[in-house]
Amino acid sequence: MTGPDAGPAGGGPPAEPLYTPEFAADPGAVYARLRKLGPAAPVELAPGVPATLVTGYAEALHVLRSPELFVKDPRRWPALRDGTVPPVSPVGLTLSHRPHCYTADGPEHLRLRQVIGDALDRLDPGTLRAVVEEQAGGLIDALIGRAAGSGGRADLLADYAVPLSALVFDRIAGCPPAHAARLQEAAAELLVTHRQGGDPAAGEAAWAALLARIRELIAERRRRPGADLLSWMAEHPADLTDTELAHQFMLLASFAVPPQHNLIAAALRLLLAGDGLPVAEAVEEALWTDSPLAGRAVYFPVRDVPMGETVLPAGRPVVVGIAAANAELAPEPERRRGNRAHLSWGAGPHGCPARGPARLIATVAAETLLERLPDLALAVPAEELRWLPGPFFRALAALPVTGIPAAPPPGPRPAAATASPPDGGPGQPGRPGLSGETGESGRGGGDQPAGARFAVTRKPTALARMQAALAQWWRGE
Ligand code: HEM
After folding, report:
1. Which of 151, 227, 238, 307 is deepest in the core (most CB within 10 A)?
2. What is the pLDDT of residues 447-473, one digit of tens each?
3. Region (Disordered) spans which residues (predicted)?
4. Taking the CB of residue 291, how many other CB atoms lie within 10 A of it?
């Protein structure tokens, strides 16, 4: 058994860097190499920042489901405490402690997570679908409007998936456009500060500026509550402070925007590569093969924990290799069909509380686009698309396409959303909310237009809903 100092210094196998373009280009090859060392192996999150990557499915589940052994609070990490990992750096930004549920454990985690879970439970899937369709419709109109000048080309990541995820989040979170613009500016400043690294004072100032902007929004929602996540969190009986609310809001934004647009882009890539999958299945396949948070589930052992032939040292980050574990469980496409056992939503106490809404957003985003623009095609072969380097996320750098017509093709337009308040702000208080996955499109497809190139799933009929419910029951969901 290798000791806690496995890695170059301890004479163990060399640590694989997870931050290089080579890793981003072919993570599967790195996972395969690491798997030969056992279910857990040494990696680096940044130059000189050691961690352990768990590549085995059973072992990954063990980490996620053992809060008595593996905790979220990064204040246990000596390298962060002693400044080896500067707090003002990309890794420091991602892994520092904040007063939200994601870096909390035990009763404190439960208290903060309950507020998010209860707010998400009030999201009405029908309203969410209408919001996505409405925002997607506006972005597609803009793509068509620019088509004459762009030669029918666009980058579906920058021109569709990214703005769509942000617009949808702003609407469901209760962030009107004027606030959203100020928040985005402050968040961009924070990211730049941390990417440049170094100056702790600049890092503090950037955080203070962002939190001040979120506090303005909280004050607005407390004055005029709406049917939105922030208002629901603010009025929750847990009575969060403004600081807790601000960080919970930031946490929601950080999960609801980047992973969401990465999932939409990864699913569109599969659909446009022409493997003939229905949209909902392409979203699921992307979760299996290009998990947006491939390395984001980081935990800290409370003591040295043996795993396979190695030991996970107390306090050293353990990265649950979501993508690696998915690949171990179901390497062949046949083993993935109709199977939702992937770890792309995490598992255990910190597992994603928003998987229903997130699936719905991705599915409706892809359906709406492909219905309106059936001639879309990848501008380069799928295998030539570039992925961004970074240990935490699986993210396409761009998704260039052709085939956008200069005028809308004949055919049905998505119904105008009813969820839109006249001022672009949050909706009316008291609107009923639903939760869970009930609003997900089923896979009926019976009303598929003849000759359609993509197997777009339309709003489910009663029969299709029943079939979908049966299928879910069959899969044990
Ligand atoms: C579409 C893509 C999404 C993916 C792939 C995803 C995946 C995940 C994963 C893997 C975790 C657990 C991470 C860990 O164990 O460290 C997680 C947690 C979380 N997700 Fe999601 N998520 C997505 C979308 C969303 C959305 C849309 C929201 C909110 C609106 C959200 C809110 C959260 C929150 C608050 C947590 C932390 C829960 C806790 O600490 O108890 N996620 N997500």
Report:
1. 227
2. 333 335 656 544 444 434 433 333 333
3. 1-21, 331-350, 406-458
4. 29
